[in-house]
Write the structure tokens for this entry.
Amino acid sequence: MIFKKRTFFGNEPERQPAEHPAELERRVAHCLAVSPGLDAIDVTVTVTGNTAVLGGTVATREEMVRAEEAAKAVEGVEEVINHIELSKGGTG
């Protein structure tokens, strides 16, 4: 496998420090996206300080619990407020 140096059109994107809320939001959203048994397409993440607020909808109660657990597992998240609701088609 050959690795090429990353190239950007213009300036390289600015990296946020790990404790920056935008970076924490990105990490939580990524964790939700790759969590097994969770369809997080309609889940939103907002971070204030070290608190992650989850919103949106999922299909089952199990997915609500998985989303909260996944967010809590992200380094830097101290509290998770879960405002996720069941979608109208949900059967959980």
Remarks:
- The chain has a mean pLDDT of 85.
- Helices lie at 21-34, 61-72.
- The radius of gyration is 16 Å.
